[in-house]
Amino acid sequence: MNLYFSTIALAMPSWMESIKQDFYISFISNDRYIVFAKGLLMTLRLTFFAAIFGIIFGVLFALMKLSRTKKGKRTVFSVFASIYIDVIRGTPAVLQLLILYFAVLPATASKELAAVIAFSINSSAYVAEIVRAGIQAVDHGQTEAGRSLGLSQRQTMTYIVIPQAMKNILPALVNEFIVLLKETAVAGYIGVMDLTKVSDFVVSRTFIAFMPLIGTAVIYFTIVKILSFFLGKLERRLRQSDSR
Amino acid sequence: MIRVENLTKNFGSLEVLKGINYEIKKGEKIVVVGPSGSGKSTFLRCLNLLEKPTSGKVWFEDQLITDPKVNIDKIRTQVGMVFQQFNLFNNLKVLDNITLAPVKLKLQTKEEAQENAMRLLERVGLSDKAYAYPSQLSGGQKQRIAIVRSLAMNPKVMLFDEPTSALDPEMVGEVLYVMRELAESGMTMFVVTHEMGFAREVATRVVFMDEGQIVEEKTPDEFFTNPESPRLRDFLARVL
Asked: ipTM score of the complex?
């Protein structure tokens, strides 16, 4: 009995010791923390630019999809936007990235640029659906009231519908960017050194899998948590203005 | 002022209006009544082309507004409309609800529009609500402000699409009061409603619609005391 306990007591430090050592090898030695920091920066940069272009083109595609002729029929733009959104949402993001980098862009194109374009295209389709739903959720009576006063379709959208739609859209949009952040992890497929690729690289160099992978997961999780925190704050503020 | 000729409207295979001919003259107060589904709201909505007629012609003053070349936005600035659901702009304060259209359409300067809005709000007894949001108002207050919003454009005619139907009973009176005052001031009005008392007291002519057609049209006295068609008699027996 005594012997049993003393064995555990002796085993504990060595167990902790090995974790400490793994951590040191994975993150500290050979300045690996700098590699991780660079990977994180790349991930954030991809997410940031893809989010910006995703919003710009997403709004554009949403407006295109909603556009109607004077007779109330769908325009050519509307049909085009629908097909675009359908195709992008119906195929894997990784595949879109591979097609863009290996089959569409010239061989000289930078990997990072290819990744930004691919994620922008992918995100714009999802953002377009969020924006479209947000605009359509605004009561049609608001549009009718605007038009009945002599405001044009465009003025009614600008001053009445879109400001109200923003309220419906914002939370879903932030959520989309959380998804986008995690989706950039596939950038490694074309050799971009983002956070996930860095962890993969460290695994292959150190032959330690657990520590770098779990560490990377913790980094993603922390960023997502920070974003979610601000999302929660935003939602509470939007709800407040409902009962003002 | 407004004239319609052979107006028809179909929703899919459903014929809602089956050839309406009518003329509204300046200063008249037309009240349209009829069972639900009779096409009265659709008729009203065709007058400012919020609903596009399937066929037929609509004139405003001397302009054929069903002509696709006509700038309908310009016509609509002269035709006020009040909705059953009020449709105040939820994102704007009361004052901005009223001044948005006249200012953005460059009909009035911001100062003029605000002055005008305050004067109109005073008239309906709501000047203390100028800086409130629609969500802070009761239904009756919302509808009075919706009326003010239309009046701020200085329209030549006002269309009312069941303005009291979405209100709690105790708020109907305040809205009808404003409409009565408006009628007395000489405004040309076209009102779809279920308020028979209003029809009797304010209308110059009362129109009965059923199944997409105008069945009968009379002065209010004649309308209520001497209905001719069996359908109108039947209707009056049920609502009075």
From this structure: 0.92
